[in-house]
């Protein structure tokens, strides 16, 4: 089945199983490997991307759902890696192994779209689906606030 | 005097014909329907707080989610961030169209059958529905119907959606009476 | 240690690294890396064997395999240890650059392939900085010495009058300077100086060491361009997903692949060889489905029909095994530590306290499950993998394929977390076998379920501690019995912890008790046991620190005071005799250089209790717990603040951690490791546990193998690094062991419930 998706602003046509999760379409078919596989069951958030601006877990989102819609991945979060969240992430040295961070950033970006000045609780609630085994949570919270122009604790 | 049924079955509406008093029959029909309303497959997403439940022991949903202002989650954790229009293949994530949490006014968890009954009949707490619309919703809504095809190893709600719809219809036809506070199925 | 350096003939390290330039490079490894680690997994240095050992015609300075100075001034530094989140690429090369006198802005860092020419590359044991600190400085100093020599020769002055800094060599008397690039070609023609002729800089000349350093790979991590193992894509590559048995040692009786092969995109179905005990780095066996994409391979696997022979481990049951371990520590084991006469002292004690502690199997669960890519063709093999141990990967691949190691190249990608899981080469065995059989490049992708169910598990354990107290409550006798299936069981017929195993928090426990006895008790393995971040220290620190807290409460005294009392006065133990043991592997370092320093352990306890206002520990609604532990030659103390949330759940809301790791290179990464240790330890304390039934793991994914989420991790983590000039200790692991006992002790202070078994969620709502 032919599926048309706008990925990071570029129109793409894919001839794949319509049930193929968006994650594998991105990674295996389109070569966009910034979006990560962590659990395959929407439990860890490593695969988070935006579908028409809303976060979805790409590992359980069939590609057919994206047909005729726009998908933004970490590669398209900003043209030059200079999204305020990306800058804050680097400035505060958030990543350790880095594997979960694309998902964390995509979730945080969706949060800031809706809540430009989130509280700690709002950050925790919005990022509750994103696991980090290295344990970067305290810096993630601080970086979201920094990107939001809020002073840290 | 009602026929015995297993926990996974629902009695047919006709079985309630043995109850001659119409009011009593209506109440009994509601108690039968409450086995579905209060089954975790259904009540889990009619929670009494900000988070839905999962599994069968009123465990809070994990990952931790919030109902949000429109009962559809919050930024980054929308219900449909994970739940699709059908159960996910090769993943346990359940899905059905319009996946969301019932509004707080329609909370069932922790309620008695009578309380659920009164809620259902109260347009202020049932989404402004007529009884006919409630029958229709229960009998045909696809999200309601998920309760009988929950996927993975989940225990479905008792009976079938068709029979559940028929019981709710029979309850309405018999006057939509509510059982007593103490009554349990 | 410098006299143990071996210099290899000049060669470039660049051949395998796609660099357009060449330069000066010196081969260099140290026999210090022959560390006597408890896991017996270290391999000694061997002559260089890879294609990288070939001479290159590229110009410039190549004093060793780690450094290259190009004629344009670009300094390339090789990071030979794997980057798995500890920030090694932002740390180790800085040492080399500082010794060299290079500007970090003109330094490029490249990742080494697996090659014994680099010495030990095993990234584990918290060993990268502590193990090779001086070696790395020497690498830079050698290159600097050659650049200085070249400049001195050109200026016809004594090298002693020249200095190197800011990417130039400077002759101060004549105010002349030459850039590193201008000197690279000439320097490259000089003989590599003997180690004795290479002088290290005084520490205060190391410009960046100990300063805030930027996170080298930060930009790549946040824009999606960092290449992890899972991200490698080769032309014509197939992706394999494997149906492994749920019980280790089980084998395929028969299978039907017809439905799997009917899935569009599925190309091949290949049976893998079943392993024989000891399992080591063999495959699990099972059936691999190879497809054009991961989704097709996953669907194909789901369509396989397999009949298994469950084998001898099918009876393994965690409930039952808990009783077996209890019984094991109920009677004497092999005595491995003896000071005074503990048995006599116990029989005469005024009061005897005893407690038994249990910690379950744990799974590493790195966010990136195991994955690897291989191409096997024309008698060569090329592997791309997120491996902590590229040389083991290379050796394993060579063995499995029957190729000489020099025909195998291992490219190390970023690791999406390691924690010990990715030291093991089982997934390498799988990928090379499949790539060979398929005749095309193959990527093996483990699912999360595979990862949770087919891991090398942290060992399940029971600890029985007995203390004899005199009339004043002072501890006069200490007996520690420990039972756990050791890591050695994965590699041979071993069913009892060894001397090497008990170095982790039992033999090196610096307590000031006159009568001490430690015993290793029998425990048979029924799963693959592996090392997980801080290894046996997890349960030894948990039991020891919990027990001392119990003693304090039994005496009705401040746990901090009792902890310090049990540790005894500040002192430095430099001999095994003082410790009452035969020998101490001491994380591969001599006791003389890294003694058991009770003063340093006391120091971190005193500091952490000061920072956390321990004296106010009984505030309304929260309680503090304390624990401290020496491991990997570093000293760490933790105070955890535990609260009960409105929903009744126990949570850790704040934590303080003080680390004395001697000299640190990159304080921000050290701080990050301590923060991460608190959260990793919180998961262990509150949530995580692997249990077995019928020989199979009962958990499958993050739904039932729970890790702390952002709202469940301490909101505030305070880290303090003790300023120190001591030799560096480990960083990646030592933060973890004291976390769980600090939390358990706080839980007791808050709730009155003494939790002797992890995770705490078994006893209390978390």
UniProtKB/TrEMBL annotation, chain A:
Limits of the 2Fe-2S ferredoxin-type domain? 1-77
Keywords in alphabetical order? 2Fe-2S, Iron, Iron-sulfur, Metal-binding, Oxidoreductase
Q: Name one GO molecular function term.
A: 2 iron, 2 sulfur cluster binding
**SUPFAM superfamilies reported for this sequence:** 2Fe-2S ferredoxin-like (SSF54292), CO dehydrogenase ISP C-domain like (SSF47741)
Q: Gene3D superfamilies, per this entry?
A: 3.10.20.30, [2Fe-2S]-binding domain
Q: Which InterPro entries match?
A: 2Fe-2S-bd, 2Fe-2S-bd_dom_sf, 2Fe-2S_ferredoxin-like_sf, 2Fe-2S_ferredoxin-type, 2Fe2S_fd_BS, Beta-grasp_dom_sf, Diverse_Oxidoreductases
Question: What name goes with this protein?
Answer: (2Fe-2S)-binding protein
The protein's organism comes out as Archangium violaceum Cb vi76
From TrEMBL, chain C:
Spans annotated as Disordered: 34-62
SUPFAM superfamilies the record matches:
Molybdenum cofactor-binding domain
What is a single molecular function from GO for this protein?
Answer: oxidoreductase activity
* Pfam families on file: MoCoBD_1 (PF02738), MoCoBD_2 (PF20256)
Q: Where is the Aldehyde oxidase/xanthine dehydrogenase a/b hammerhead domain?
A: 223-312
> What is the designated name of this protein?
Twin-arginine translocation pathway signal protein
> What organism does the UniProt record list as the source?
Archangium violaceum Cb vi76
Which classification does the entry list for the species? Bacteria, Pseudomonadati, Myxococcota, Myxococcia, Myxococcales
């Amino acid at each position: 089945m032919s599926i048309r998706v706008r990925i990071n602003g570029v129109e793409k046509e894919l001839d794949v199983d319509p049930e193929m999760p968006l994650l594998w379409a991105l990674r295996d078919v389109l070569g966009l490997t910034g979006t990560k596989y962590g659990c395959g069951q929407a439990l860890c958030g490593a695969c988070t991307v935006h579908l028409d601006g809303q976060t979805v877990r790409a590992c359980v989102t069939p590609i057919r759902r994206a047909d005729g819609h726009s998908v933004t991945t970490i590669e398209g979060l900003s043209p030059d890696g200079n999204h305020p969240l990306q800058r804050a992430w680097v400035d505060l040295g958030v990543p350790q192994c880095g594997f979960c961070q694309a998902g964390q950033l995509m979730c945080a970006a969706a949060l800031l779209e809706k809540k430009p000045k989130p509280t700690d609780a709002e950050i925790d609630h919005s990022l509750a689906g994103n696991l980090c085994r290295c344990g970067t949570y305290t810096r993630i919270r601080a970086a979201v606030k920094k990107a939001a122009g809020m002073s840290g604790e | 005097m009602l026929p015995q049924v297993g926990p996974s079955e629902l009695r047919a509406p006709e079985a309630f014909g043995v109850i001659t008093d119409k009011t009593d029959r209506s109440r009994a029909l509601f108690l039968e329907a409450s086995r579905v309303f209060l089954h975790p497959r259904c009540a889990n997403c009619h929670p009494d707080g900000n988070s839905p439940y999962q599994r069968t022991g009123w465990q809070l949903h994990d990952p931790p989610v919030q109902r949000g202002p429109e009962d559809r989650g919050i930024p980054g954790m929308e219900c449909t961030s994970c739940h699709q229009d059908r159960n996910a293949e090769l993943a346990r994530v359940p899905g059905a169209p319009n996946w969301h949490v019932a509004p707080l006014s329609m909370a069932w968890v922790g309620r008695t059958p009578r309380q659920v009954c009164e809620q259902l009949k109260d347009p202020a707490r049932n989404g402004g529905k007529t009884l006919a619309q409630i029958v229709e919703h229960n009998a045909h809504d696809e999200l309601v119907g998920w309760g009988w095809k929950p996927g993975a190893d989940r225990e479905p709600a008792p009976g079938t959606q068709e029979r559940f719809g028929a019981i709710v219809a029979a309850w309405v036809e018999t006057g939509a009476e509510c059982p007593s506070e103490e009554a349990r199925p | 240690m410098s006299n143990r350096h071996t210099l290899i003939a000049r060669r470039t390290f660049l051949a395998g690294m796609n660099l357009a330039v060449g330069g000066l490079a010196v081969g260099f490894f140290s026999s210090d890396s022959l560390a006597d680690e408890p896991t017996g997994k270290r391999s000694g240095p061997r002559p260089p064997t890879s294609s990288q050992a070939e001479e290159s015609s590229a110009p410039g300075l190549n004093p060793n395999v780690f450094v290259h100075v190009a004629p344009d001034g670009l300094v390339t530094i090789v990071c030979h240890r794997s980057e798995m989140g500890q920030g090694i690429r932002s740390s180790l090369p800085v040492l080399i650059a500082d010794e060299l006198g290079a500007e970090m802005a003109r330094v490029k860092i490249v990742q080494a392939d697996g090659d014994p020419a680099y010495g030990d590359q095993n990234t584990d044991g918290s060993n990268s900085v502590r193990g090779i600190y001086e070696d790395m400085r020497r690498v830079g100093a050698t290159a600097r010495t050659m650049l200085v020599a070249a400049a001195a020769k050109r200026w016809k002055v004594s090298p002693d009058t020249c200095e190197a800094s800011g990417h130039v060599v400077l002759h101060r008397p004549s105010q002349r300077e030459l850039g590193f690039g201008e000197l690279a070609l000439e320097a490259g023609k000089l003989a590599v100086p003997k180690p004795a002729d290479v002088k290290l800089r005084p520490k205060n000349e190391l410009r960046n060491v100990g300063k805030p350093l930027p996170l080298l790979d930060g930009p790549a991590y946040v824009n999606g361009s960092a290449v992890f193992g899972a991200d490698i894509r080769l032309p014509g590559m197939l992706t394999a997903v494997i149906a492994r048995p749920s019980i280790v040692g089980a084998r395929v009786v028969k299978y039907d692949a017809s439905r799997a092969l009917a899935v569009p995109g599925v190309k091949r179905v290949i049976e893998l060889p079943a392993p024989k005990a000891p399992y080591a780095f063999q495959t699990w066996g099972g059936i691999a489905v190879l497809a054009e994409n991961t989704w097709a391979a996953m669907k194909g696997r789901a369509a396989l029909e397999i009949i298994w022979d469950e084998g001898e481990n099918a009876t393994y049951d965690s409930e039952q095994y808990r009783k077996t371990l209890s019984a094991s520590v109920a009677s004497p084991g092999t005595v491995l530590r003896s000071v005074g006469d503990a048995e006599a002292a116990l029989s005469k004690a005024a009061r005897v306290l005893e407690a038994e502690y249990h910690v379950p199997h744990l799974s590493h669960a790195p966010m990136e499950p195991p994955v690897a890519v291989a191409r096997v063709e024309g008698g060569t093999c090329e592997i791309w993998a997120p491996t902590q141990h590229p040389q083991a990967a290379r050796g394993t691949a060579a063995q499995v394929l029957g190729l000489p190691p020099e025909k195998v190249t291992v490219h190390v990608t970023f690791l999406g977390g390691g924690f010990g899981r990715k030291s093991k080469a089982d997934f390498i065995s799988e990928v090379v076998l499949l790539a060979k059989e398929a005749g095309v490049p193959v990527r093996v992708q483990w699912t999360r379920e595979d990862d949770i169910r087919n891991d090398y598990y942290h060992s399940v354990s029971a600890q029985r501690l007995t203390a004899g107290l005199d009339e004043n409550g002072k501890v006069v006798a200490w007996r520690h019995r420990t039972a756990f299936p050791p890591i050695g069981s994965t590699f041979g017929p071993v069913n009892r912890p060894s001397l090497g195993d008990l170095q982790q928090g039992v033999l090196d426990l610096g307590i000031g008790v006159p009568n001490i006895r430690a015993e290793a008790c029998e425990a048979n393995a029924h799963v693959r046991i592996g090392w997980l971040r801080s290894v046996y220290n997890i349960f030894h620190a948990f039991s020891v620190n919990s027990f001392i807290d119990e003693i304090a409460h039994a005496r009705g005294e401040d746990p901090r005071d009792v902890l310090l009392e049990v540790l005894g006065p500040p002192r430095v133990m430099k001999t095994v005799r003082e410790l009452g043991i035969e020998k101490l592997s001491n994380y591969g370092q001599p006791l003389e250089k890294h003694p058991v320093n009770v003063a340093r352990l006391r120091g971190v306890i005193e500091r952490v209790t000061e920072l956390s206002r321990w004296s106010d520990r009984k505030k309304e609604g929260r309680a503090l717990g304390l624990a401290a532990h020496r491991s990997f030659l570093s000293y760490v103390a933790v105070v955890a603040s535990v609260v009960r949330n409105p929903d009744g759940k126990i949570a850790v809301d704040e934590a303080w951690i003080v680390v004395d790791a001697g000299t640190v290179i990159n304080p921000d990464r050290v701080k990050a490791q301590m923060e991460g240790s608190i959260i990793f330890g919180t998961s262990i304390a509150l949530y995580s546990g692997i249990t077995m039934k019928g020989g199979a793991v009962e958990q499958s994914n993050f739904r039932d193998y729970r890790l702390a989420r952002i709202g469940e991790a301490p909101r505030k983590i305070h880290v303090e690094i003790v300023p120190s000039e001591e030799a560096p200790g480990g960083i990646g692991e030592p933060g973890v062991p004291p976390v769980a006992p600090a939390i358990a002790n706080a839980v007791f202070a808050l709730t009155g419930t003494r939790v002797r078994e992890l995770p705490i969620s078994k006893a209390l709502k978390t």
